[in-house]
Specification:
879 residues, alpha/beta, five-stranded mixed beta sheet
Length: 879
């Protein structure tokens, strides 16, 4: 998050791009840069920015515009009237700097559009052809140059990005394959040693889900695999090209044949598994028919896919070849099964939802007579559909498990906790305080019925005392003083002193979360984990609450399996799984050809070496250029295969029964999946009561007790002394900053301290952008490092230094020691403190550390020291 904040600041200063046709508003450039980042890592190559200037394209446009005007002055008799009118309108409505999309359509023909038995002069035909050729040249130059300004911006941005991420010592997961590729590049001087070290360790390679392996990933392994094979090793890869649904992440199912050909000098065996041990007879037979060659040819013709592929038989053949080995046999014991197909003739998406909702609810009502809730799974295409279907089932009071229900912020108890935090952040927030005290957490902990609290608030409203200038919490404090003092006062007074994590663990303990809500423990722990992860980014409570307004969805899901509930998955997340009953409410094909993101008209093409080019290809571009048309058709073919693979995965998850609903529309376009099932096919097999309902009792929820946290406020006192000394957030920030800096200072022996402090200072500027006087703190750090009394702690010539070293005591409590120096016969412990107040507690804490370390290293002598940062003094603690 810090890095992206800095990148946004960078973009705000360097938005110099030549936004020629207004394709991307400034706000969209951020998402475009992210798209470039993903594509660069996906292919493991850099973008090539084509040299050229906007002025060159403007010059070409003016020249063409003038020639079109000259052409219009000599229209021959008998020219197609539609073509003539479109040229005239083009001249009237545009100027010499026209947009590509406004070009008259007929100019894509190299011949003059004349009426039957009418002919033009050779001169006019030559002029027409000249305009056509120049437009074609303009179109192709425009296509390759369209993204060049944005690529130039991205290339500058990525340099800054790499500098920042290196300074923060951060590597993004998306970059790993590309960074590994740079290590394994044959031009690298270290490649021989790297491969020698790795290939001697591994002789046998097994790669699962190989259809999702990217070319970049495979190239990183290829040389090591070849070395292993040459020494008697093996390669065993398993996959299914028909389930290749991760091409958007770089997955390349074509590697199946490429690798087989590459290793043809070794003994290569291919085995196709024909037996289906999952699904019953009717489901297997249905899928065999749907993905048969005959049905796919019919589907390609009826859905107009062949037309989009420009009737190219080679491209159609590639689609068919993907499904050449689809026919499967079923287990003789699985001789039943049922498939139901229903097509929906809706006018729009709103009508589709109105039709589907009662159908799904009615179907579930029928299914639960023969199956458990947990046997029923609904597959959706995207998270929007997941949320929609989830809301239907929740409204109908069905138990349901989906990413929506497992979103920690949707849990009603977590909402109560957030209301409490909002109140602590802003005590005059009556709504948040009221939401908390009428909730289950407060009622369960305190023992006051919720009805009583509601009546208390209702009476205040009747008396017009709420909202009249006196905050609700004060009125509550007057009536329930003992409860306020016991449950609220300590947090009310200390908010801003405790860290968010420490305060929340204390709240969990005070309100007996572990005892009262054991079934929701996963949600409470996930929220605590989320708060801890975000602690460095959002230090204050206000910052964390701001983050909760727009968090990333993938940070919020709880990994938990309920005992008996209907499951809702996206097709991608259902891959590799099986379910007794599968319902597909919206079987659609969304063929998106654009590799750079939907709506961008962008297409990636591999250039020479380690470069990729990005083309802008619209329908107008394709009309004029056969080369651009081929790029589009290839992308369309791959996207079409992706969509068929998605359908294949969805239709092959069911074991007993499969229900498919196919809408007429997909968004505003016709749904090509509408044609995948032949007309008249509505049912296969028969419904049956399978003997699975009582085979397994629903699994009991395994109950774990929460970790018992000690009073963090008392712990805080041991670190900073009496709380009266710590008045505000700035003091906490100062302590965190000192600890962060010193954690970066490992063994300073034989290091250039000036350079080390400079490096750490740069990192702290990024980690603590709110600190204005960083130079002051760095001077103090330098003073500490140069102090003669403390020198032996930071300059160690005969030992090993570890910072923020974690140990676990006998009771399983985690302890973090600021600095540990390990020598042959001795271990030295150093604990940093802000001041000498509460020194006895500090000593006791260090003694505890000594006892822990002595129990782990009984053969070594352990010594402990307190280092007081405010006066650069040290105190040895005797055990």
């Amino acid at each position: 998050k810090k890095i992206f904040n800095l990148l946004e600041e960078f973009l705000s200063h360097y938005l110099f791009v030549e936004n020629r046709d207004g394709w991307f508003p400034k706000n969209d450039i951020k998402s475009l840069m992210r798209s470039f980042f993903n594509l660069s890592n996906k292919f493991g190559k850099e973008f090539e920015a084509v040299e050229g200037k906007t002025s060159d394209i403007i010059k070409m446009k003016r020249n063409i515009y003038n020639k079109v005007i000259e052409l219009s002055k000599s229209f021959p008799e008998g020219i197609n009237k539609t073509a003539q009118n479109s040229i005239v309108k083009f001249i009237e409505k545009n100027n010499s700097i026209f947009e590509i999309s406004n070009l008259p359509t007929k100019f894509y023909q190299s011949f003059v559009p004349m009426n039957k038995n009418k002919y033009c002069s050779d001169e006019f035909e030559e002029n027409w052809l000249n305009v056509h050729d120049e437009i074609k040249e303009l179109i192709e130059i425009d296509s390759i140059m369209a993204y060049s300004p944005y690529i130039k911006l991205f290339n500058r941005l990525i340099c800054f990005f790499q500098y920042v991420s290196k300074s923060l010592d951060v590597v993004f997961l998306d970059e790993l394959n590309r960074k590994a590729s740079s290590l394994f590049n044959e031009d690298m001087t270290s490649v021989v040693e790297i491969y020698y070290r790795l290939s001697t360790r591994f002789k046998h390679y097994l790669i699962d889900e190989f259809q999702d392996t990217s070319g970049l990933q495979w190239n990183n392994l290829k040389m090591m695999v070849e070395d292993a094979l040459s020494c008697g090793g093996s390669l065993f890869y398993v996959g299914d090209r028909k389930q290749a649904i991760y091409r958007f992440r770089g997955g390349d199912s074509g590697l199946f044949h490429e690798i087989k050909n590459y290793f043809e000098h070794f003994k290569v065996e291919s085995v196709y598994l024909k037996n289906n041990w999952r699904s019953h007879k009717e489901i297997v037979g249905f899928n065999n028919n749907i993905f048969s060659r005959e049905n796919l040819i019919r589907f390609i013709d009826e859905s107009a896919i062949r037309f989009e592929l420009d009737n190219d038989s080679d491209y159609v053949g590639q689609i068919l070849n993907t499904f050449t080995d689809t026919e499967q046999t079923f287990n003789p014991e699985n001789d039943c099964g049922y498939v139901c197909i229903e097509k929906i003739n809706e006018k729009n998406q709103e009508e589709r939802d109105d039709i589907m909702k009662p159908k799904i609810l009615e179907l579930i009502q029928e299914l639960i007579k023969r199956f458990r809730y947990t046997d029923i799974t609904i597959l959706a295409r995207n998270n929007r559909e997941v949320e929609l279907i989830t809301s239907w089932l929740i409204e109908a009071d069905y138990p349901v498990e989906s990413e929506k229900t497992l979103n920690v912020l949707n849990n009603p108890l977590i909402k109560e906790i957030i209301s409490f935090l909002k109140f602590l952040n802003s005590p005059i927030d009556d709504l948040s305080f009221g939401s908390f005290i009428i909730g289950e957490i407060f009622s369960s902990a305190v023992g006051i019925p919720q009805v009583e609290i509601r009546k208390f608030i209702f009476d205040l409203r009747k008396e017009n005392r709420v909202g009249g200038g006196i905050p609700l919490y004060r009125l509550f404090r007057q009536k329930y003083e003992d409860i306020w003092n016991k449950y609220f006062n300590i947090y009310f007074k200390n908010v801003g002193i405790l860290s968010n994590y420490e305060m929340l663990t204390s709240i969990y303990s005070a309100f007996r979360i572990s005892e009262n809500f054991i079934e929701n423990q996963a949600f409470f722990m996930k929220f605590l984990e989320l708060l801890k992860i975000k602690e460095d980014e959002y230090i204050s409570l206000r910052d964390f609450l701001e983050y909760l307004k727009a968090p990333l969805d993938n940070e919020l899901y709880v990994n938990v399996t309920m005992s008996d509930s209907i499951k809702i998955f996206t097709i991608h997340k259902a891959k590799g799984l099986e379910f007794p009953v599968v319902i597909i409410p919206f079987l659609c094909m969304n063929i998106n050809t654009e590799t750079g993101g939907k709506g961008t008209s962008s297409y990636v093409v591999h250039g020479e070496g380690q470069k990729i080019n990005l083309f802008r290809i619209t329908k107008k571009h394709r009309q004029y250029s056969s080369d651009l048309e081929k790029i589009y058709v290839e992308s369309y073919k791959q996207a079409c295969i992706d969509e068929l693979n998605n359908i294949y995965v969805a239709l092959t998850r069911a074991k007993f029964e499969l229900y498919i609903f196919i809408p007429k529309k997909s968004g505003s376009s016709n749904n090509k999946a509408f044609y995948i099932v032949p007309e008249g096919v509505t049912e296969c097999g028969k419904k049956k009561a399978y003997d699975i309902k009582n085979k397994k009792d629903p699994q009991n929820i395994i109950k774990f007790n929460f970790s018992q946290y000690k009073d963090w406020i008392e712990t805080f006192r041991s670190e900073f002394g009496d709380l009266s000394r710590v008045k505000n957030y700035d003091k906490i920030l100062e302590g965190n900053l000192y600890h962060s800096v010193l954690a970066k200072m490992g063994n300073c022996n034989n290091k250039n301290i000036e350079e080390l402090i400079k490096t750490v200072s740069d990192q702290m500027y990024l980690a603590y952008p709110m600190v204005e006087n960083m130079t002051y703190y760095m001077k103090n750090i330098k003073k500490i490092l140069n102090n003669k009394i403390l020198k032996d702690f930071f300059y160690v010539s005969d030992g090993y230094v570890e910072c923020e070293k974690e140990f676990v005591n006998f009771y399983g409590d985690l302890k973090r020691i600021d600095r540990v120096i390990t020598k042959d016969k001795q271990i030295i412990i150093i604990d940093y403190k802000i001041s000498k107040e509460n020194q006895n507690e500090h000593k006791q804490q260090v003694r505890e550390y000594i006892n822990i370390v002595e129990s782990i290293y009984p053969e070594k002598r352990v010594k402990g020291f307190l280092l007081y940062l405010d006066e650069c003094s040290v105190l040895e603690v005797l055990n």
